[in-house]
Amino acid sequence: MNRRVVLLVPLALFIGLGIFLFKGLSINPFERESALMARDFPSFTLSTLSDPEAQIDESVLLGDVTLVNVWGEWCPTCKQEMPQLLSLADQGVRLIGVDYKDQRDKGLSFLRQFGNPFEFNLFDPEGSLGFDLGVYGAPETFLVDAEGVIRYHHTGYITPEDVTEVILPEVEKWR
Asked: Fewest CB within a 10 Å sphere: which of 71, 98, 107, 134?
């Protein structure tokens, strides 16, 4: 009897581990909630992409609903989502970019090639603001209300459907 129990323990552990791993396959990492939801946007002081001498802090987020888009020249999906960001800007949505873990000249070249929907771009070459936001890749977009509080977090590429079905309704909700 004891021998059977000893043989069944590894089998039970194997089956339990298999169920745990199988469940993990169904989890979509793009649907995770931001730990910063309903919290103030993190404090920062960064230069702009276009002017290394200009220092910008989180106070620029006060007074208007703003989409903060984390992007990089090295990011292929950032290129794909640029038409949607340009469309949002054309519809009167305020956008601020964060050029994340990039080189200044490459970021500027990216904007010349794909368009620039942003009021301005923060330059975050070390990823310090991205770290404070919990960014694990680009693109990621944060909706910040007029008081500087994060109200929505979109991980990954913004599709045309996301613009009409999610982003614009969220912007209107917080205006």
From this structure: 134
